[in-house]
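Recap slide: Ribonuclease D, sequence and predicted structure.
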Amino acid sequence: MNGLFPHPRVPREWMRKLTPEEVNQLPVRRWDGPIRLIRDDAEAEEAAVLLARESVLGFDTETRPSFRKGENYFPALVQLAGAETVYLFQLKGMERFDALSAILSDPARRKVGVGLNYDVRALQTLFSFQPRGFIDVGEVARRAAIASQGLRGLAAHLFGMRISKRAQCSNWENPELKPFQLVYAATDAWISREIYLRMHETGVFSSPLASIG
């Protein structure tokens, strides 16, 4: 448990490490609700108005994978999941990032996900913003001595479900994303939000942990 004491409100079953075989036997779940693809600045501004109504947003990014040494790419997609709709921002189609920057800098909108430091730093290479209201549920899980800290493991522990990683290494810079890419990206943001809400329900957030800004 990395020398950490279990949080008193963490269910005991969350502290048992699941084997890969156990995870693979779980049913696959995907986001099956509305997905809104944001392609330009005007659509981003419209989405920002709707997202301002949300208090908790599942957050993730997708980047084109690199297969050669020294080859790197900027983030191609930002996913923000609200209670009923997941918004996917295609960054290559945007010239201004004011609307997105405002969301990511707003302390009143909690942006929740896993591995947020990396995602935030990568986005800051594209546009400037002061990250506020970010909560890394993977880091919260580590500090609370939950056995898994990754998105797939947390989904398995907290919900008894498996999320597919099949589209992870696909080309996220394609102007026309395929349906399986849209669902994959939306699922990661959706389950991040669900993990946060489940942790909140159990009282794991009884003290402030793992926030960025």
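The chain has seven helices and seven strands.
Residues 12-212 form a domain with the Nucleotidyltransferase; domain 5 fold (CATH 3.30.420.10).
(End of recap.)
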